[in-house]
Write a structure and sequence with these properties.
Order of helices and strands: EHEHEHEHEHEHHEHEH
Strand order of the largest sheet: 1-8-7-6-5-4
Number of helices: 9
Radius of gyration: 18 Å
Organism: Enterocloster hominis (ex Hitch et al. 2024)
CATH superfamily: Divalent-metal-dependent TIM barrel enzymes
Largest sheet: 6 strands, parallel
CATH class: Alpha Beta
Pfam family, one: AP_endonuc_2
InterPro entries: IolE/XylAMocC-like (IPR050312), Xyl_isomerase-like_sf (IPR036237), Xyl_isomerase-like_TIM-brl (IPR013022)
Number of domains: 1
Strand content: 5-15%
CATH topology: TIM Barrel
CATH architecture: Alpha-Beta Barrel
Protein name: TIM barrel protein
């Protein structure tokens, strides 16, 4: 396994700072957040791309995945507004091209809550259409689209492994892959092994954190801080032969001093790697 962290944790710093932190704390990669001030796709001209490629080389750090911001205003693949969906698709096409230019073969997407009063099948039609367009372009560029399930408070369309499998069946593209975020399956009372067993080779990425067992809060990683037995989660990954990226995803309130909590997470990761021989 290789370890990285989502640079959104350092959203109050410029992107180069995340590469420095990755080198300082021994991470093999960073998961680049596709929002300002880091790597918003519409800002990524030739000069900006070259700067990021230079940081990869300078700090010896890979880009594990490119993660455009689509859980927040103004983008949504499931919006009832045709204009918003169209602009989201344009933005994601630009994002997948940015991912390819940055030399990563993965880009994450999510299905934001569509709002109330919308029929489920209508929402699924929107999501299938937009994802299909995106996957065609991603396939041409050699980039996998990594679909993440969400907790019910974040979205009500892709919340479990069955939802992921259903969208894969509807889109029918080898470019549409999946991941585990440690929080949503736990809230949904799904075993992590379901993702690894049923998604098979299309399960290509992991977001690591701990949780409170009730909300989408992405809590500090240590076993003592949350309700998820983190060490045993990694034991399950090892049993299934998962050997891909594990990316630390810490959000608010950790923005206040992201290096402090990154350092704390590193101690847990090192202990787990030694204990399980990862």
């Amino acid at each position: 396994m290789k370890f990285s962290f989502l640079t959104y944790q350092f959203c109050r710093f410029g992107l180069e700072h995340s590469f420095k932190m990755a080198q300082e704390y021994g991470f093999e990669g960073v998961e680049v957040w596709g929002g300002r001030p880091h790597a918003y796709a519409h800002d990524m001209g030739k000069e900006e791309i070259q700067a990021i490629l230079g940081w990869k080389k300078q700090y010896g750090v890979e880009i594990s995945m490119f993660t455009p911001e689509i859980l927040a205003y103004p983008y949504s693949l499931t919006s009832s507004m045709e204009k918003e969906r169209r602009e989201t698709i344009e933005y994601l096409l630009k994002s997948v091209e940015t991912a390819a230019r940055l030399g990563t073969d993965k880009m994450q997407i999510t299905a934001k809550h569509p709002g109330y009063g919308v029929k489920r099948e209508t929402v699924w039609g929107y999501l299938e259409e937009g994802t299909s367009i995106l996957c065609r372009r991603a396939g041409e560029l050699g980039v996998d689209i990594i679909l993440e399930s969400l907790s019910p408070s974040e979205g009500n369309t892709i919340t479990c492994v069955d939802d992921i499998l259903q969208l894969q069946e509807r889109v029918k593209s080898p470019a549409l892959c999946a991941m585990i975020d440690m929080v949503p399956p736990f809230i949904a009372n799904e075993p992590y092994s379901d993702y690894l067993e049923r998604l098979g080779a299309s399960m290509k990425y992991v977001h690591i954190c701990n949780g409170d067992g009730a909300t989408e809060f992405h809590m500090q990683l240590d076993d003592r801080d949350g309700v998820i037995p983190v060490t045993d989660f990694f034991r399950i990954l090892k049993r299934y032969g998962y050997d891909g990226w594990c990316s630390l995803e810490l959000l608010n309130p950790y923005f206040r001093d992201p290096e402090l909590y990154l350092s704390q997470a590193v101690r847990t990761i090192r202990r787990i790697r030694e204990e399980l021989d990862l």
